[in-house]
């Protein structure tokens, strides 16, 4: 996640909010969707007031009020992967062949498991105590991703898909947590560099619209500044 409590509104009434926003932002930029990024900021410690969200949560007529959400006209979507899939389908970024679609399905779920492990660490009050064990176990997960990617350019195969936007962010966050974590996985390092070199992504990352930090909410023990 990038930033604490935020709302992103596209000029043609696309909206989503908060948690897990960075991959969605990257996907919108890559697909050329115009949007306005309106951010809500949680209050200071120790209370971290979240009335910026809770004050309007039940006024938005969402079936399952949650963050992030995405609105396209009369269509309102919650759940980050559902949002990613919706945008991806519009632009053919959900796998070109049946094999690629299956690989996308697998990586979508593996990426969520990977994210959840990282989130549990970053928001745990005992972050400093738990970090060492987490990093000791990290190579086994990276090895699985490395083997699954193999010598393919993207996780689906030959074609870029929405899971690459998710995995880029997750691997990038891990290189911030542990800068040398990919040294034994050259294909993952190459993958990160290849993603950043995509013309529209490179342009976005060089712009003042790009949010490099924070990685997490103010309440996190890592990546909150």
From TrEMBL:
<dbReference type="GO" id="GO:0006749">
    <property type="term" value="P:glutathione metabolic process"/>
</dbReference>
<keyword id="KW-0808">Transferase</keyword>
<feature type="domain" description="GST N-terminal">
    <location>
        <begin position="8"/>
        <end position="95"/>
    </location>
</feature>
<dbReference type="InterPro" id="IPR040079">
    <property type="entry name" value="Glutathione_S-Trfase"/>
</dbReference>
<dbReference type="InterPro" id="IPR003081">
    <property type="entry name" value="GST_mu"/>
</dbReference>
<dbReference type="InterPro" id="IPR036282">
    <property type="entry name" value="Glutathione-S-Trfase_C_sf"/>
</dbReference>
<dbReference type="InterPro" id="IPR036249">
    <property type="entry name" value="Thioredoxin-like_sf"/>
</dbReference>
<dbReference type="Pfam" id="PF02798">
    <property type="entry name" value="GST_N"/>
</dbReference>
<dbReference type="InterPro" id="IPR004045">
    <property type="entry name" value="Glutathione_S-Trfase_N"/>
</dbReference>
<dbReference type="InterPro" id="IPR050213">
    <property type="entry name" value="GST_superfamily"/>
</dbReference>
<protein>
    <recommendedName>
        <fullName>glutathione transferase</fullName>
        <ecNumber>2.5.1.18</ecNumber>
    </recommendedName>
</protein>
<dbReference type="GO" id="GO:0042802">
    <property type="term" value="F:identical protein binding"/>
</dbReference>
<feature type="domain" description="GST C-terminal">
    <location>
        <begin position="97"/>
        <end position="215"/>
    </location>
</feature>
<dbReference type="InterPro" id="IPR010987">
    <property type="entry name" value="Glutathione-S-Trfase_C-like"/>
</dbReference>
<dbReference type="GO" id="GO:0004364">
    <property type="term" value="F:glutathione transferase activity"/>
</dbReference>
<dbReference type="Pfam" id="PF14497">
    <property type="entry name" value="GST_C_3"/>
</dbReference>
<comment type="function">
    <text>Conjugation of reduced glutathione to a wide number of exogenous and endogenous hydrophobic electrophiles.</text>
</comment>
<dbReference type="InterPro" id="IPR004046">
    <property type="entry name" value="GST_C"/>
</dbReference>
<comment type="similarity">
    <text>Belongs to the GST superfamily. Mu family.</text>
</comment>
